[in-house]
Write a structure and sequence with these properties.
Length: 392
């Protein structure tokens, strides 16, 4: 439900522009086989990265334009060509496009290329646009490489979350202006060669939010599509340009392994961090997840900051007791309202419901970590398949 509501909100935001659902990183850890079938009918394009993801999308939809959103390796590209997945390969160098052309000629096909321009200085997946004259010369040769066809031209704005649209000093605004100027230049080459004009794609989730109403790229007058990842999954709320009203799609949960009783005066957790004060003692529920399960990379998370509570599907809040360890958590078996957890019961570890400021929602975890990529956190939450699973 959250996913479909998010799609609706995003569709309103992007208006006439196409919606390219970015489902890389196994749909940011949500499971591409679960997410794609729900939303593909609202999309004009889908973008992924790995061949398993391409295959997963093709199983659902044989024809939707499908983009590999990073430069592929020779093996990946050739496996994709051989399987006839008709994936649009991202490319940002003459050699790569030539290689793609050779691979596709071997299979008697023409490859679609998503030409990436490094408008914002990411220095990885894009042609540098610093020197228009050498770029012009380069493009003239690129557009004639056999067995290739440039189907779209795009850029990626890494600072979009903090963009100040139409402010001359804003990095995203400057990048977009540079992109538009460069694309105008390149389009002339398409015209000179009599080639069909490409689609344009400059916005990701945050930039789509930021530039939604002010659209410097529209002047190009070409079909456009926005590449939306985080917003679809309700994860842009921590940006300045969060997609208002979207909801978190992913919630991590686990089953209670056991419940044990501890007497008054006994302690729970490392360094005797929690001391039982209740005269009757306390029942402790053991969960088979800990801060390492949440992510081995979240250095310090959970050692110093323990999420305050977890929550059952019926909304009972159970507090974490004591300093938690890497793959076991200890929570109060008795909820704040006096209900007792039993072994085998299911409990959510992440939730955006509930009164507490400290439950480990993904945006909040990202805040504790000082900023984090959503797909990284959501994937890492599932690092131990035996102890943690996702609910939607
Ligand atoms: C991941 C990615 C996107 C989607 O980014 P979100 O911020 O998650 O919407 C768009 N474009 C490129 C090139 C990407 O790598």
């Amino acid at each position: 439900m959250a996913l479909l509501e998010n799609v609706e909100i995003v569709r309103k935001r992007i208006g006439q522009r196409g919606l390219c659902a970015v489902l890389k990183g196994d749909a940011y850890g949500h499971g591409i086989d679960i997410v794609a079938p729900e939303i593909i009918r609202f999309c004009s394009h889908v973008a992924v990265v790995d061949n398993q993801e391409i295959e997963a999308v093709r199983r659902i939809d044989e024809n939707i334009p499908l983009i590999r959103l990073r430069v592929g390796s020779e093996g990946e590209i050739s496996d994709a060509a051989k399987a006839d997945w008709r994936v649009r390969e991202m490319a940002a160098s003459f050699n790569k496009i030539e290689e793609i052309g050779k691979i596709y000629s071997h299979f008697g096909q023409t490859a679609d290329i998503h030409l990436s321009l490094d408008a914002a200085g990411l220095g990885r997946n894009g042609f540098s646009i610093r020197d228009p004259y050498s770029l012009d010369a380069l493009m003239r040769t690129i557009l004639t490489i056999p067995n290739t066809r440039v189907a779209s031209v795009g850029c990626h704005l890494p600072d979009a979350g903090s963009a100040v649209p139409y402010h001359s000093a804003d990095p995203s605004t400057r990048a977009l202006n540079g992109f538009v100027a460069t694309v105008k230049w390149i389009l002339q080459i398409f015209v000179d060669h009599g080639l069909p004009l490409p689609e344009i794609s400059s916005y990701s989730s945050s930039s789509s939010c930021a530039f939604g109403e002010h659209d410097p790229v529209a002047v190009l007058g070409l079909p456009m599509f926005d590449r939306i990842g985080s917003s679809l999954l309700g994860l842009t709320s921590s940006n300045r340009h969060g997609e208002l009203g979207t909801g978190q799609v992913l919630h991590a949960g686990t089953f209670v392994c056991d419940v044990t009783h501890r007497e008054h005066g006994e302690t729970v957790g490392y360094e005797h961090s929690y001391k039982i004060e209740d005269p009757e003692g306390k029942d402790i529920a053991i969960l088979g997840v800990g801060w390492l399960t949440l992510s081995r990379y979240q250095q310090g998370l959970g050692k110093t900051t323990t999420p305050a509570h977890c929550m059952t599907p019926s909304g009972d809040i159970h507090e974490f007791l004591g300093r938690q360890s890497m793959n076991i958590s200890t929570v109060s078996a008795r909820s704040r309202d006096g209900r007792d957890l039993r072994p085998g019961e299911f409990i959510y570890l992440t939730t955006d419901f509930g009164p507490d400021e400290y439950s480990p929602t993904i945006p909040r975890v990202a805040k504790w970590m000082g900023g984090v990529q959503h797909e990284f956190v959501s994937t890492a939450f599932g690092a131990s398949s035996s102890t943690s699973r996702f609910l939607f």
